[in-house]
Specification:
Oligomer: heterodimer
Largest interface: A-B, 26 and 30 residues
Radius of gyration of chain A: 38 Å
Number of strands of chain A: 23
Helix content of chain B: 25-40%
Mean pLDDT of chain B: 73
Largest sheet of chain A: 10 strands, mixed
Distance between the termini of chain B: 44 Å
Shape of chain A: globular
Strand content of chain B: 15-25%
Number of helices of chain A: 29
Low-confidence stretches of chain A: 578-586
Strand content of chain A: 15-25%
Strand order of the largest sheet of chain B: 6-7-8-3-9-10
Radius of gyration of chain B: 19 Å
Largest sheet of chain B: 6 strands, mixed
CATH superfamily of chain B: P-loop containing nucleotide triphosphate hydrolases
Distance between the termini of chain A: 26 Å
Low-confidence stretches of chain B: 230-299
Number of domains of chain B: 1
Structural class of chain A: alpha+beta
């Protein structure tokens, strides 16, 4: 067998290449998926952490154990707490037990009259000494008890001040005694605060411990827990923090499942609050399903091409062996023997393929992860590659597939006898697909798909929002369209060639004539490889456009939603109020921080003040109030730092700003005011801020779009149905707003200089002690879009798919031509002997290349372009984010196309060079001898 | 012809040495021969005697190590590769031992192709048909090579070699793959062509039975020419039809002379056509051998 393989080494190499690529592609899928999902989980948690400042990976439980018999309930809770992380499969970060007795009155043993307390809760926090630092006094001692039997306690600053306690004083509880009926006494030994305010240990802030005195852990447990618990009412809070960095895609399933068990089924379910991470994980799983399905669907065409390649090459190899097979058969070899021989052969190749393919899969996976754009890589981005069971499962499926694909063509051949061979050689017939009009059928089906999808295009966005994944049928339609068009081209190509031939029949030079004849008679043999090329190129083009369009639209949308580089909103202090009710914000006045400071922001080109009220209301119909967003702007400054695509609005953006600028009491309204509520230019509109301050203004104009404005939002209800809500926007002059609404915190919108980064602004804010409640960084938002796993994965899969198919295409093409030239070597020799010049031979071969290769490339480009124009607008809807505002544009990036062309031209050139070398090596007399043998 | 005899091919002291792994191998060791115009010359010899090498050198497919070949007064060795190719496509027609048709072209196209190669303008159809009729394939013009028998294919190859009106046809063992009857017919065809088309034909063969058909025979052995029946004899032989008497049977030569008197083309064509149809009665008298066995399986 090995000898046989060596004999056909070129074909075998091709088969091996096919196996390797197939296995690598299949294996890279779970590898990439796992790596991307790991990153997604981390991103979800990171985002939550950076947005809220809260540790997302945490379970909290709370019980109030009143007269707990033998402390059983508490014991149950503590057991659950201790085993929870293990069950969920996560690494513990911090476990916090915070117990406190109910508030009990006490009196100072110093007999102070000014003791400001009606009672303190006595409690403990686990590991307190490690996380607290003392601002006065000291931490309780290890024994936690003074010589005269008082419990040493520490309190927070707030507790000390609010209750007017003194450090060092001893107090005695009136109604709180220990098991021995002795009244409990406490001695305040110190005042504590957080050692590090960012420490997640501090789930309960010292500032919230206004009436809590904390004592030594063991002493508390000994005195009040266990059997003693029966006597007391104890509030037990549990905070179980775990690390999220190591939650991988695999662990996520277990984590979510166990979390659901704890919160929904376990005996302690009622004590648990819904953990934040559960929602994060659920979001992740929803996204994951969508991504997984989308990536898989996108990979299908490549897998089909790979299988077809293997099928073709092995079929061709068996064709070459037909003589041997038929001779062996005629000498009595059984079909079963033949079949087994080929089965062994395929298995052997597959094993070799797996040995190289699996490592190559990891390379593919890395490439996938570093794809920035179609055929564009960023090598700095690294993925975490882990092999889990699923990877091996995929690998085994791929291997079985390889063996089957390579062995099945042998079935046909193993039944061949020499008689049948002779018979079949004599028959020439039309391809089966031409007879059944497969091309027409495929085109019909895909166009029907196209038609029905374009009819329901607006519903598509909604279905995507409802969590449904990219409709496979939609993608299938486009793929079928490409295949159908490719086949149609193959049907027409010979006719076109024949027409050209007939047009110049009398004038064709010998070389052209020979190539025409060759194509007319033998063109059918090339159909498979031509179809392959057409599919590769048109899919490549289509995918390039898909990838670019989706990415560019997402980027444009992000640009639109984040109209300026930096938005920050400073924390404003309130004017100390003389009224008794400081919490009523409406009446509170703010102190405006020094606006002039912002002039020193580094790297800023221009900035402006923007008043943004997202909870305003407007009188729409009669007396109905509708929620609206109110934007107060300095028209001139605002105009210099924001912009709007000219295509989005009727008039140039600046004109709207000018209209507003000349009408101090005018407002611009979003066009849904006009379309939904029937407002007209010149009408008066009444709107209020959240506190009820009213402005009456004149409508100056309507705008369809405004930087950052979403005309409608889609929300998904509990039942999964999507609803659209119109968003109303009122744009007024900043001065008008401030005059009527009063002085409220405004936002600073800044445009950075070319190349400046937000880091400098961060540093500047730190130096100038500026605290913000909002800081939006456009670069960050854009980065998130680019790194979105769906977009990134799509780019990656499409790029890898293209690379794989172009390799196959080149190899297939070369093999086809090498075989074709080899089989015609004798004829070339005859031609040369008859005086055919070498140049003419090239001319002939190049003509043949043009008829097959070059025409296929052009057909591929044409079909790719057509398919893009037809299907991309629909496909991108499936990718649209929930906040897609801008009308989608079909983006054909010339650089992408050029890159594609360079690859194609490069491959073609390589093929040509190889072929030319082959022809050069052709020795006339030798070739003739070959024929004589 | 007579005293006007021209030597269209002059082979002067041609030697050819091949380098092989086991040392140099001298395939030709100084062959001298003058081949007169318009005759059928047979290069005879056992396999390995250097016939094909000599033929390749004459056909400008190979270069001699020593000596030179002059075709129509032109030293072939002094031509560039390109000029040699032009010489081959215009002046020379080749017939190879094995089937050498272009499989993607039918019989007609194969023959026409050589006219295209030679750059002949005007209507090719008439000439192609004429040539195909001459080889007896007038009725099978539009068949593909794969649909024809070996003998038929070889006849197409001969038609192709003659179609563009070359001055020389070089045939390397054209009969090797044919049965003896077929071989005789092909040889006859060559003879007839030398007269009809006034073309010089050089064919190699190892088939002793065919030797006497040639106007001239050159015999090679171990790369050396051992006999070269003198040109005057050949000329004479041609004129009185007795030259081959010393080498072969008179009856055949006589028969040949008779045939010459008739309208050759039609007769030969008919003979072929009939032999194909399996009705070989008349052909027997014509060829003097078992022409009936020529009936080959048809695709």
């Amino acid at each position: 067998m090995l000898q046989k393989l060596w004999h056909k080494k070129w074909m075998v190499m091709c088969l091996l290449l096919g196996c390797i690529l197939l296995i690598a592609t299949v294996v890279s899928f779970p590898l990439y998926r796992n790596a991307a999902f790991d990153r997604m989980i981390k991103d979800e948690f990171d985002d939550y952490l950076s947005e809220t400042g809260l540790w997302p990976a945490m379970n909290t439980m709370l019980i109030i154990a009143k007269n707990d018999r033998n402390g059983e309930s508490i014991k149950t809770m503590e057991n659950a707490m201790n085993e929870m992380n293990g069950v969920m499969g996560v690494t513990e970060k911090e476990k916090i037990f915070y117990y406190s007795l109910s508030k009990a009155p006490l009196k100072s043993l110093w007999n102070r009259a000014d003791l400001g307390t009606d009672g303190l809760r006595l409690g403990y926090m686990s590991n307190l000494p490690k996380h607290a630092k003392m601002i006065s006094g000291e931490m309780y001692s290890e024994s936690g008890i003074t010589e005269d039997g008082a419990f040493e306690v520490v309190v927070s600053q707030d507790c000390l001040v609010n209750n007017n306690l003194l450090v060092g004083e001893t107090l005695e509880y009136a109604g709180l005694a220990n098991a021995q009926k002795e009244q409990i006494r406490i001695k305040i030994v110190g005042v504590f605060q957080e050692m590090d305010s960012t420490d997640f240990y501090w789930q309960v802030k010292p500032s919230d411990m206004g009436i809590v005195a904390l004592m030594q852990e063991d002493l508390f447990r000994e005195t009040f827990l266990g059997e003693n618990a029966t006597r007391y009412s104890i509030t037990c809070s549990y905070y179980n923090l775990f690390e999220y960095e190591d939650i991988t895609a695999q662990k996520a399933d277990q984590l979510l499942e166990k979390t659901k068990y704890y919160t929904e089924e376990s005996s302690i379910r009622k004590t648990m609050s819904e953990p934040v991470y559960k929602e994060l994980l659920e979001t992740y799983f929803a996204k994951r399903t969508r991504i997984e399905a989308a990536l898989f669907i996108l990979q299908v065409p490549v897998l089909i091409l790979l299988c077809a390649f293997l099928f073709m090459i092995s079929g061709q190899m068996y064709d070459m062996e037909r003589n041997e097979i038929s001779v062996m058969k005629s000498r009595g070899g059984s079909s079963g023997q033949m079949f087994r021989l080929y089965l062994y052969q395929s298995t052997f190749l597959t094993l070799l393929g797996a040995a190289a393919g699996i490592p190559l899969g990891t390379v593919f996976c890395r490439l996938l992860g570093s794809t920035q754009n179609f055929l564009e890589f960023n090598v700095r981005r690294k993925l975490n590659i882990t092999f889990d069971q699923s990877v091996w499962e995929y690998a085994i499926v791929a291997m079985v597939g390889c063996v089957l694909i390579m062995t099945i063509p042998a079935l046909k051949h193993s039944r061949l006898t020499i008689v049948k061979l002779k018979q079949s050689n004599a028959i020439r017939k039309r391809s089966w697909w031409e007879k059944i009009f497969l091309d027409v059928i495929l085109l019909g089906v895909s166009l029907y798909g196209y038609y029905s999808f374009s009819k329901s295009q607006s519903d598509l966005a909604a279905t995507v929002m409802e969590g449904q994944t990219l409709d496979p049928l939609l993608y299938l339609s486009s793929s079928l369209f490409i295949v159908g068009m490719g086949l149609l081209f193959l049907r027409l190509q010979p006719l076109v060639i024949q027409l050209i031939y007939l047009l110049g029949k009398r004038f064709w030079k010998p070389a052209s004539y020979a190539s025409f004849m060759e194509n007319v008679k033998n063109g059918r043999k090339q159909q498979f490889i031509m179809l392959f090329m057409i599919l590769t190129i048109s899919l490549g083009m289509y995918h390039a456009v898909v990838a670019r369009t989706i990415l560019q639209n997402a980027k444009d949308n992000a640009e639109y939603l984040e109209p300026v580089d930096i938005v920050l909103k400073e924390v404003w202090n309130k004017v100390p109020s003389s009224t008794d009710n400081p919490t009523n914000e409406a009446t509170a006045a703010y102190m405006e921080p020094d606006y002039a400071r912002f002039a020193s922001m580094p790297g800023v080109e221009a900035y402006t003040r923007v008043f943004l009220e997202e909870r305003g209301s407007v009188k729409t119909v009669d007396k109905t109030q509708s929620a609206c967003t109110i934007l107060g702007i300095h028209t001139k400054e605002y105009g210099t730092i924001t912009n709007l695509d000219r295509e989005l609005t009727d008039k140039p953006y600046r004109e709207y700003l000018n209209e507003l600028a000349v009408a101090p009491n005018g407002v611009l309204l979003s066009s849904n005011f006009r379309d939904v509520f029937g407002f007209n230019i010149g009408d008066t509109v009444d709107f209020k801020d959240r506190y009820g301050a009213l402005i009456q203004a004149k409508v100056v104009d309507f705008v369809d779009y405004w930087p950052g404005y979403q005309p409608e939002t889609i929300t998904v209800g509990a039942d999964g149905s999507a609803t659209k809500t119109n968003q109303l926007l009122i744009i007024a002059n900043f001065a008008t707003i401030q005059k009527n609404f009063g002085l409220y915190p405004y936002e600073i919108w800044a445009k950075l200089q070319e190349g400046a980064s937000s880091d400098a602004i961060y540093d500047w804010m730190k130096q100038n002690n500026i605290h913000v409640v909002k800081f939006a960084d456009k670069a960050n938002a854009l980065k998130k879009v680019v790194q979105d796993p769906l977009l990134q994965g799509t780019n990656g899969v499409l790029t890898m798919g293209f690379i794989v198919t172009i390799i196959l295409c080149a190899v297939g093409y070369l093999i086809y031509w090498i075989m074709s030239i080899r089989s015609r070597e004798m004829i070339f020799g005859v031609l040369r002997a008859c005086g055919f010049h070498k140049g003419e031979l090239f001319h002939m071969l190049i003509n043949e290349q043009i008829f097959s290769g070059v025409l296929s490339i052009f057909a591929g480009i044409g079909i790719g372009t057509l398919t893009s124009r037809m299907f991309v607008p629909m496909l991108q809807t499936a990718y649209a984010a929930s906040n897609q505002v801008l009308p989608m544009k079909l983006i054909v990036n010339q650089t992408d196309m050029n890159r594609l062309y360079v690859v194609i031209v490069g491959v073609m050139a390589m093929c040509l060079i190889t072929l030319i070398t082959l022809v050069f090596k052709l020795n006339v007399t030798k070739a003739l001898k070959l024929g004589e043998e | 012809m007579g005293e006007n005899t021209k030597y269209i091919i002059e082979i002067q002291n041609v030697g050819r040495t091949f380098s092989t792994a086991s040392g140099d191998f001298q395939a030709l060791k100084g062959v001298n021969a003058n081949i007169p115009e318009g005759m059928l010359t047979i290069l005879k010899g056992r396999s390995g005697s250097g016939k094909t090498t000599l033929l390749n050198i004459v056909g400008a497919l190979d270069n001699p190590t020593t000596g030179r070949v002059i075709i129509e007064g032109q030293d072939v060795g002094k031509l560039s590769a390109y000029q040699k190719e032009n010489l081959r496509r215009k002046k020379i027609g080749f017939v190879f031992q094995s089937v050498s048709l272009i499989p993607s072209m039918n019989a007609f196209q194969n023959v026409e192709f050589s006219m295209r190669m030679a750059g002949i303008r005007g209507d090719h159809k008439k000439r192609v048909e004429e040539c195909l009729k001459m080889v007896g394939l007038g009725s099978r013009m539009h068949h593909m090579p794969s649909e024809m028998s070996g003998g038929e294919q070889q006849r197409v190859a001969i038609a192709r070699a003659i179609a563009h009106g070359p001055s020389i046809i070089l045939a390397d063992e054209p009969t090797a793959e044919l049965d003896s009857a077929m071989a005789a017919e092909v040889t006859k065809l060559f003879q007839e062509m030398t007269r009809r088309e006034h073309v010089t034909i050089v064919m190699t063969t190892h088939d002793v039975g065919l030797m006497d058909a040639g106007d001239m025979v050159i015999e090679l052995e171990n790369g050396m020419q051992i006999s070269h029946n003198a040109e005057p004899t050949a000329t004479e032989a041609q004129s009185n039809g007795e030259a081959e008497a010393e080498n072969g049977e008179k009856s055949e030569a006589q028969e040949y002379a008779d045939a010459q008197a008739r309208a050759y083309a039609e007769t030969v064509a008919e003979a072929f056509a009939e032999s194909e149809a399996g009705a070989g009665a008349e052909a027997v008298t014509f060829t003097g051998s078992e022409a009936g066995s020529d009936a080959e399986p048809k695709a």
